[in-house]
Write a structure and sequence with these properties.
- The chain has a single domain, classed as 3-Layer(aba) Sandwich (Oxidized Rhodanese, domain 1), CATH 3.40.250.10.
- Helix content is 37%, strand content 15%.
- The chain starts with 5 loop residues before the first strand and ends in a 7-residue tail after the last helix.
- Strand 2, helix 2 and strand 3 form a beta-alpha-beta unit.
- The protein is an alpha/beta fold.
- The protein has a five-stranded parallel β-sheet.
- The radius of gyration is 12 Å and the shape is globular.
């Protein structure tokens, strides 16, 4: 999906301390999230995003993440279509985060 800004996991790690703090939207399935997620990530599975979009804030940047970056790309595109302005996809997703040795919550 063209037109969706992307960041890598190094930028994500640096961006988590930014102000205003970004909303890290994890769109994986609950079992994937429970197995390990980026600290502070909020789970809204992609299949539920349309019904739960009101849980995604409009007043801060949105960083969408999944396992490798495909589901989050779809989620980011959807949010942009709804008028969210500061939305980015995390390239490589949680897999890249774990591969770098960054901390995960379980």
């Amino acid at each position: 999906m063209s037109g969706v800004p992307a960041i890598d996991v190094n930028q994500l790690r640096q961006g988590l301390t930014a102000q205003p703090a970004p909303f890290l939207l994890d769109v994986r399935e609950p079992w994937e999230y429970e197995a390990g997620h980026v600290p502070g990530a909020r789970l809204i599975p992609l299949a539920e995003l349309e019904d739960r979009v009101n849980e995604v804030p409009r007043d801060r940047p949105i960083l969408a993440i999944c396992h490798s970056g495909q589901r989050s790309l779809a989620a980011a595109g959807y949010l942009i279509q709804l008028g969210y302005s500061a939305v980015s996809n995390v390239d490589g997703g949680t897999a890249a985060w774990v591969e770098r040795g960054y901390p995960v919550e379980r």
